[in-house]
Amino acid sequence: MNQSIESLPNDADRLKELVIRLQDKCTRLETELSTEQTKTKHQSDYINQLIEAIALAMQRIQLLYRIEKQAKDIDADQRMFLRQTRSIPILNNLRKWLDKHLPVVVKQSALSKAMYYMDKQWDKLTVYTTDGRLTIDNNHCENVIRPFVIGRKNHLFSDTVSGAKASNNLYSLIETAKANDLEPYRYLKMVFTALPKTTSVEQIEALLPFKPEIKLDEAA
Hints:
- It is built from 8 helices and no strands.
- By secondary structure, the protein is mostly helical.
- It folds into 2 domains: 2-130; 139-205, no CATH class.
């Protein structure tokens, strides 16, 4: 009996110590939970701001393409004037948007890679505003080379590197002739007829499809 009574203070002390530990653990858990909730809220706020920023950038890009749609049927000088007066202010706002969000975007994310690419290629992106003959993107070129990309396995049958290069040179001539409103068969017939008669580099260069003096024989 005496031993049981004497053991009570020790048991009470251990119980008190256990309660204190539990209280400390609960406090730490509450702190961690509060920190996690704050972190989650900040992440949520960041994501919402990011979505709004992306939407704003996409709206500006869409406006640029709408302007290009309006400029489709006017001449190069008028197209450049339209770009100078309407497209450049939009591009300036887009540049400010990029400068604002680039330093805070999450590194190595898909969005950051796209934004850094835009930053590095900015001069190439905006050069179309300086010449009405240029296009806003290279979609036309990609469409032109698509048949060759689809048929790229044909290049496996080139016996030599020089043969593959010859094929590519021929493809380039054909597509450049098309781009300059020359019928490919008639153009190539003219080139292969005139080429053996050339005696200088200047005469050879005069046969290039983008030369304004190129005239195709209507009877060809």
